[in-house]
């Protein structure tokens, strides 16, 4: 026979072992849940990283497209400016030629007018000189 105190102690030890077993099982469950949550968070972080990387690549492509379009437009503007400069040079030459022609005509009229004024002023004296 066993002593009642020893039996009581054995019962208590069994209770403690049972409680520790339950606590251990609960801790294992909590650890499993926490591990599952960590795994899900890691997957979510990887997914977010992939999305961010994809968006970055899209952004870089769009920026490159904008730079390419700007370069094309710059070239187009430069071509238009060069075309306008050429047209302005041609117009300047045409106007310069017209001005030169007008100046020649003006000087011819001025010379002719001077001859007429000279002849009117000194005409009788010239005729008198030639007539003698």
Q: What does this 3D model show about the protein?
A:
- The protein is mainly α and 132 residues long.
- The protein has one helix and no strands.
- It is rod-shaped, with a radius of gyration of 56 Å.
Would you summarize the structure shown here?
The protein is an all-alpha fold and 132 residues long. The chain has one helix at 4-131.
What fraction, in percent, of the residue positions are helical?
Answer: over 70%
Count of DSSP-assigned helices: 1
Distance between the termini: 189 Å
Gyration radius over CA: 56 Å
Query: How would you describe the shape?
Result: rod-shaped
Alpha-beta content class: mainly alpha
**Mean pLDDT over all positions:** 92
Strand content: under 5%
Stretches where pLDDT is under 50 for at least 5 consecutive residues are none
How many β-strand stretches? Answer: 0
Q: In this structure, how is the largest beta sheet organized? A: none
SSE topology string = H
Features:
132 residues, mainly alpha
Which secondary structure elements does this structure contain, and how are they paired or packed?
Blueprint: H1 4-131
């Amino acid at each position: 026979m066993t002593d009642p105190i020893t039996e009581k102690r054995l019962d208590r030890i069994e209770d403690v072992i049972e409680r520790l077993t339950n606590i251990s099982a609960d801790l294992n469950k909590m650890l499993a849940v926490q591990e599952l949550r960590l795994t899900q968070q890691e997957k979510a972080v990887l997914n977010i990283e992939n999305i961010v990387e994809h968006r970055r690549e899209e952004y870089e492509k769009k920026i490159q497209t904008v730079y390419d379009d700007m370069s094309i437009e710059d070239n187009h503007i430069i071509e238009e400016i060069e075309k306008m400069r050429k047209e302005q040079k041609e117009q300047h030459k045409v106007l310069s030629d017209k001005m030169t022609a007008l100046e020649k005509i003006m000087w011819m009229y001025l010379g002719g007018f001077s001859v007429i004024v000279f002849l009117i002023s000194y005409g009788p004296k010239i005729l008198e000189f030639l007539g003698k």
